[in-house]
Description:
CATH superfamily of the largest domain: Polyphosphate kinase middle domain
Strand content: 15-25%
Largest sheet: 10 strands, mixed
Number of strands: 27
Distance between the termini: 53 Å
Structural class: alpha/beta
CATH class of the largest domain: Alpha Beta
Radius of gyration: 27 Å
Amino acid sequence: MVIDCTFTQNRELSWLSFNDRVLLEATDETVPLLERLKFVSIFTSNLDEFFMIRVGSLFDLMNGDPETIDKRSGLTPREQLEAIYSAVQPLYQKREVICATLEKQMRIHGICRLSYAELNPAEKKYCTQYFRNFIAPIISPQIVDTHHPFPHLKNKVLHVGAWVKYKSKEVFAVIPLPDALPTILYLPGEELHYIHMEEILMAFVEEIFSNYTICEKVIFCVTRNADINPGDEAYDIDSDDFRKKMKKALKQRMRLAPVRLELSSTISSAFASYLKQHLPVTDRQIFITSAPLKLDYVFNIAEKIAKEKRDELVYPVFTPCVPADINSKESMIKQITHKDRLLSYPYDSMLPFLNLIREASEDPTVVSIKITIYRLASKAKLVDYLCAAAERGKDVTVFIELRARFDEQNNIDWSERLEEAGCTVLYGFEEYKIHSKICLITRQEHGEIHYITQVGTGNYNEKTAEQYTDVSLLTADKRIGQDATIFFKNMSIANQYGEYRELLVAPVGLKSTLLQLIDGEIAKGDAGRIIIKINSITDMDLIEKLEQASCAGVRIDLIVRGICCILPGVPGKTENIRIISIVGRYLEHSRIYCFGSGNSEVMYISSADFMTRNTQRRVEIACPIFDPEVCAKLHNILDTCLADNTKARLLQSDGSYCKLPQDGHPVNCQQLLMDQAMMQYVSSTPPQEKNKRLTFAERLRNKFFNKNER
């Protein structure tokens, strides 16, 4: 089979390019210093998940079907892995340099990550006491010899390993860092000094193995394949059985094969050979870095810094606003019944939606609430309100996806809480995750049925709603409500092949309709217009259709944050396609599809990216937008993103990204949308509060937005 890869690229290498853009945010001097260090942390955790899931699945594919060819790049699984490991090595080097640069600058502000050798006598005494009192009693050191087998090294747990000698015999010694310990230890003193827990453990290796000679020692971490998929085995969709299966799968994740070994320093060939043999890993799977192997602690450092200094090091506080067209003191049900509303997170607050659910839980006209849940915060008011509704006798049905990756345990816990309150809790299909974001409130008033439907692009997670850009439609449109009723009925009887008038529902109706909509623009030739904002695009059917549209003269703008397997600007293929990626303060997460222009325009918001897993292997929803004002608000988001020349990067035909020229006024789309939300809120604020809010808004604009645009 001949594969045309002239206008496509490998998804894994495209993802690594995205993560490189995340890391480059740490070099942007317009970003506050501590926020830059957070981008290094995000890069690190992103890479961890990439190895656990994507690299892990490629190893599985290589072992199971080694001759499989990637349609986007023509590479076999082995060739993809070789390309990945080659591409990751320079990223480690870049991360190390950036991390060292930022930590050097942090020291100017009195915030210092110290090695044990850098500690002064008082700090060493403090660490010694901490080790004796809190670390030594709970560690489990082990020697590996003929009587003690090589231990299972848990996934992503830091270890201190040592090559030790007793008489004439050399053996391996290892100490896992206990989960009960904090990541770092703050040291006494006026300035903010801290040391990593593994550094302390490393310093006391000689004391721990006092009857051995320590030849060499190193901090290391094993990353394992974590691509568990309960769908690979048949199971009944019984709630208790499914929960037990997921708990078993989570334990299995900790024991899967290693895909990466990280070391804090170079070790001898004998030590390295020993680890490679017993894990096992190859040379290409070993990465050596002096930067911390875990950086999640940086998100908590700000709490330890005095406010005056903190203001210099972090983003100015932004509190999501209640939109100007929503009155917090009036019934949400009445407001939505009167007119559609759109929430744009994180610029708009999630509070109106939560108030809607709370009100529905109390309203005697509400007979049922149905909702799909993929991810929730660890503390969720939404669950409280759903439970309250059930306890008041309303019919509450929750479809919760227990296979939401790395949120499985959290969702298991919430499912148990919801069931205890009297909610009906159902789960996804055997072969399809329910990834859609839809909530249906059904009311019975004066003998008639009324609906309020919420459809969104992001999860019902109250924490990430302040960190991710998403949109959420609140509508009383009967057409949407009737389709939502059919959707929930189909989900209840495990029918993923239902038919709908307005909603596009994967795995059946979404992709076919999108292809038809693109065909509609192809028929218009150079009068055709397509704007798509998504997280990723990998689906070859949609990619090939977009290439056909480009060849027909259709003007296409794609705003793709992450993986982008279609290459723009390829002569004779994708010359009419322009693609940008935006990485900034917030994670771009909203999915907006726009086909045509003017009166013939069709616009959708959706939970689905243009990925095969979304279009064919998940339950997803795309909802049409009928209200002109909601359309205008969505166009403002798209237009602002397309105008960005500060955080946006332009994808080139060779797969590289470049900055956009700032010929006119610099535009940072996220800051501009934040600024607009604040100004609209101020304009709708009562006069007695207006001056106070306006002062804050002006300060926000002057301190952050204008600063970025100099």
